[in-house]
């Protein structure tokens, strides 16, 4: 669920003008009687066209909050502006010294508000009680949600469904915390749609030289790849499947599918024609596979062991594992997507994953149609041993979770080819959260969604399951021209576990 900023329609008032008439006399010895000229009838002043008062629109976008104010703060460094600064670290929070206290969010103009998102301080340790109110003028507020309580199970955004309401201001008022300590919000978000004409978001240039990458060396000299193996569409002659380059061999490796760009980025290119990783795989990839063993070949690549990690809600297996829970964070640009093939396949690729033994808790997709300048981002969550369900992150709203979104309208707040953006895939507890930002990893948040595996009864909370991250380019097209390809360039890549 995500957003785009919009603009209200303005009424244009026409100017009023009057025509001045004059009379004249004739020549000769006799004078003509004067001509009576009637006074001109004044042109009435048009009535200004009122600002549209529509209260309906479609979309679940991450709305642009233009300002924040509070009834009080706990002191310097805890100002209201911290709650809208796109920083999800605990150090950047609005905190109130007493309860009750209010945080007011200003959207700049009226939007249809459909959900409220809050990343709470200590959000995975305590409950916070609060009310939600809305206003058109910032003075007269009406209740939208009363006696609301946080779940206390996440540091990411908790999402609160509210009655669709048109407003410019949203006020969040604290009524208590379960530990009695001050009320604090790390980041606030509003989700909904514009009531005016939606405007396309312009692509902002990004200077990739800030990453300090060397274009003259192999990717493994710019990035620490000892914790990864690489699969590409090249054919391994020993078995006919995709070539794998193990972690200890990646420092100086490059080929036509994996190389360094002119600005030092790490390029993953995956052509439609090429080898797949197994007989059960339908698509090619140029993609890194997480290897927590970091070259220690005494540890198997598969199984519940030190090479792989557990989802944070899995029970203790009683053996040493590579970690529990995790964060995959990348900064990249998608350079090309396929434009040939059948309609279901074109322009569709995966650039980040959590992979389990046989299933995929997360596949993060980018989809752009050839006629559109922008693409949208969504993810699939595969029920263990079952089917996929789908969640939009940046793009059009859709209601059928059992089918991949196929909306051909240009997502005006989406991501263009060549645009630098960042993503975070975070597993903590039973949730997997996805956040998309423009620019680098500290950039503006433009999209968020999550899946709660406990709520979905996903089936991964067992002792014999194991997981690993994947990042790169995983083509989702096997019907296009053989030389057609997907390509991404990564500028940062980070994987961490508890």
Mean pLDDT: 90
Fraction in beta strands: 35-45%
Give the overall shape, derived from the CA principal axes: globular
CATH class of the largest domain: Mainly Beta
CATH second-level architecture of the largest domain: Sandwich
List keywords for this structure.
498 residues; mainly beta; Jelly Rolls; nine-stranded antiparallel beta sheet; eight-stranded antiparallel beta sheet; 1% helix; globular; disordered N terminus
Question: Would you mind describing this structure in some detail?
Answer:
By secondary structure, the chain is mainly β. The chain folds into 2 domains: 61-198, Sandwich (Jelly Rolls), CATH 2.60.120.260; 208-496, Jelly Rolls, CATH 2.60.120. 1% of the residues lie in helices and 39% in strands. The chain has one helix at 219-222; strands at residues 6-7, 61-62, 67-70, 94-95, 102-120, 128-135, 142-149, 158-177, 184-194, 197-198, 228-235, 242-245, 258-260, 266-271, 285-290, 326-336, 348-356, 362-367, 374-382, 388-394, 415-416, 420-428, 431-438, 445-452, 467-475, 485-496. The strands form 4 sheets. Strands 11, 12, 15, 17, 18, 19, 20, 21 and 25 form a 9-stranded antiparallel β-sheet that branches. Strands 2, 3, 4, 5, 6, 7, 8 and 9 form an 8-stranded antiparallel β-sheet that branches. A hairpin with a 6-residue loop joins strand 18 and strand 19 (374-382). It is globular and about 70 Å long. The protein starts with 5 loop residues before the first strand and ends with a strand.
């Amino acid at each position: 669920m995500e957003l785009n900023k919009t603009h209200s329609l303005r009424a244009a008032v026409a100017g009023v003008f009057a025509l001045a008439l004059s009379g004249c006399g004739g020549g000769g010895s006799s004078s003509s009687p004067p001509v009576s000229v009637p006074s001109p009838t004044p042109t009435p002043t048009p009535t200004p066209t009122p600002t549209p008062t529509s209260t309906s629109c479609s979309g679940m976008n991450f709305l642009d909050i233009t300002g924040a104010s509070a009834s009080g703060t706990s002191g310097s460094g805890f100002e209201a502006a911290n709650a809208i600064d796109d920083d999800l670290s605990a150090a950047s929070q609005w905190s109130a010294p007493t309860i009750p206290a209010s945080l007011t969010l200003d959207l700049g103009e009226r939007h249809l508000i459909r959900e409220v998102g809050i990343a709470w301080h200590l959000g995975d340790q305590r409950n916070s009680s609060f009310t939600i109110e809305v206003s058109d003028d910032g003075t007269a507020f009406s209740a939208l949600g009363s006696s609301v309580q946080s779940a206390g199970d996440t540091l990411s955004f908790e999402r609160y469904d509210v009655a669709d309401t048109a407003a410019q201001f949203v006020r969040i008022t604290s009524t208590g915390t379960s530990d009695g300590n001050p009320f604090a919000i790390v980041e606030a978000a509003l989700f909904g749609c514009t009531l005016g004409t939606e405007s396309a978001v312009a692509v902002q240039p990004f200077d990739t030289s800030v990453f300090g990458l060397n274009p003259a060396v192999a990717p493994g000299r710019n990035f620490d790849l000892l914790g990864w193996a690489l699969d590409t569409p090249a054919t391994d002659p020993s078995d006919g499947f995709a070539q794998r380059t193990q972690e200890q061999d990646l420092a100086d490796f490059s080929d036509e599918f994996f190389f360094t760009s002119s600005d030092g980025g790490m390029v993953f290119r995956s052509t439609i024609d090429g080898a797949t990783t197994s007989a059960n795989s339908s698509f090619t990839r140029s993609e890194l596979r997480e290897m927590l063993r970091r070259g220690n070949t005494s540890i198997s690549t598969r199984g519940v062991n030190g090479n792989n990690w557990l989802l944070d809600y899995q029970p203790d297996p009683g053996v040493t594992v590579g970690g529990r829970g995790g964060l995959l964070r990348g900064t990249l640009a998608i350079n090309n997507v396929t434009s040939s093939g059948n309609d279901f396949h074109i322009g569709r690729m995966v650039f980040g994953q959590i992979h389990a033994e046989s299933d995929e808790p997360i596949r993060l997709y980018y989809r752009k149609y050839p006629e559109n300048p922008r693409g949208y981002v969504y993810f699939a969550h595969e029920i263990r041993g079952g089917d996929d369900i789908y969640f939009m992150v940046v793009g059009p709203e859709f209601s059928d979770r059992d089918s991949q979104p196929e909306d051909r309208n240009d997502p005006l707040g989406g991501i263009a080819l060549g645009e630098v953006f960042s993503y975070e895939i975070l597993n903590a507890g039973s949730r997997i959260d996805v956040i998309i930002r423009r620019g680098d990893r500290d950039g503006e948040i433009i999209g968020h969604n999550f899946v709660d595996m406990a709520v979905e009864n996903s089936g991964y909370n067992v002792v014999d399951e194991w997981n690993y991250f994947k990042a790169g380019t995983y083509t989702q097209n096997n019907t296009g021209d053989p030389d057609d390809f997907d390509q991404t360039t990564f500028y940062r890549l980070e994987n961490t576990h508890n």
